[in-house]
Amino acid sequence: MYIAMNRFKVLPGAEEEFEQMWLNRDSKLKSVPGFVEFHMLKGPEGEGHRLYSSHTVWESEEAFVAWTRSEAFRAAHGSAGGTRPLYAGHPNFEGFAVIQTISNEA
Question: In terms of pLDDT, which residue wins out, 57 or 83?
């Protein structure tokens, strides 16, 4: 299993627009081989920003890399720029190989 995360420092006053952009997008993820689940996380306020993080779970790092090279990825991210800056700088990417999972599933 592999987890891909992007952290965004969203500018003050842009939180609602940022959230709506994510909630209303056509993500294409459900049709991607190896995709498991996606979460958009809203974090704490920092100095001059609110922290958000996208959190995507994949069957493997190879499945994630294949997604980033796909036409579906380009289509899903084609309008990511928007009309005005919503966050400071570029998203901060972090990728993790899962070494342990504890689940509450039977």
Answer: 57
